[in-house]
Amino acid sequence: MKPDVQGKLVIISIFGVAIAMSIYAWWHNIHTGNQVIEFFGVENATRLRHADSIDLLILDADAQGQVNERFNTSAGPSSILSEQSITNTPGMVHLRHMFIQDHTYRWDQGVPELPSSWAFALRFKDSTGTTTLVFAPANYVVEHVETGKLLLMGDLLDNLIRYLTESKLITLDDVTEP
Q1: Quick check: is 155 in a domain?
Q2: DSSP labels, the chain
Q3: pTM of the predicted model over 0.85
Q4: Number of folded domains in the chain?
């Protein structure tokens, strides 16, 4: 075989491998959120990724004094002690992305027990509605408030808490039980 023909075959092979890898990456990326879409639904999953605003809510189930707002969870009513917008906080793209990836959650494990109280919540809002996730870091449980569905979150909950504390949005006292 002539050297110029061999060179052309090498180039064609490189392009073929690149196209095959691109197709696989595209396919893999599409299927990394199938269980999330099934659990949350397309509208809520889209809101988690593209919400116009995101609020961080610090919660207290036992709050007796004046509170901003209350909402019901599967563990009973929770009071919002503080609320702040974190929409433009650096790193939010990665935080949003985390919630729509299947590997964030432990799909094969059931929720061990209903949390006695929730530590904090993230409220995702856009023009079509609201999606609120409440978190119980002590037992890695997350609840989709609007549907009442519970889910066990994996070790990425620790990363979420680290991100929120390093960004000075919460303190460890906010997320630990007394």
Answers
A1: yes
A2: --HHHHHHHHHHHHHHHHHHHHHHHHHHHHGGGHHHHHHH-HHHHHHHHH-SEEEEEEEETT--S--SEEEEETTEEEEEEEEEE-TTSTTHHHHHHHHT-GGGB-TTS---S--S---EEEEEEETTEEEEEEEETTTTEEEETTTTEEEEB-THHHHHHHHHHHTTSS-HHHHS--
A3: no
A4: 1
Q: For the chain (length 178 residues), average pLDDT per consecutive 10?
A: 79 90 78 81 90 91 60 81 90 87 85 78 94 91 90 90 90 76
| 17 falls within a domain | no
The answer to the question of residue 11 being in a domain is no
User: Is residue 137 a contact partner of residue 175, using CB atoms and an 8 Å limit?
Assistant: yes
Phi first, then psi, for residue 30 (nearest 5°) are -65, -35
State pLDDT tens for residues 128-159: 999 999 998 888 899 999 988 999 998 889 99
128 in a structural domain: yes
How far apart, in whole angstroms, are the C-alpha atoms of residue 161 and residue 168?
10
Range of the domain at 129: 33-175
140 and 65 Cβ atoms separated by less than 8 Å: no
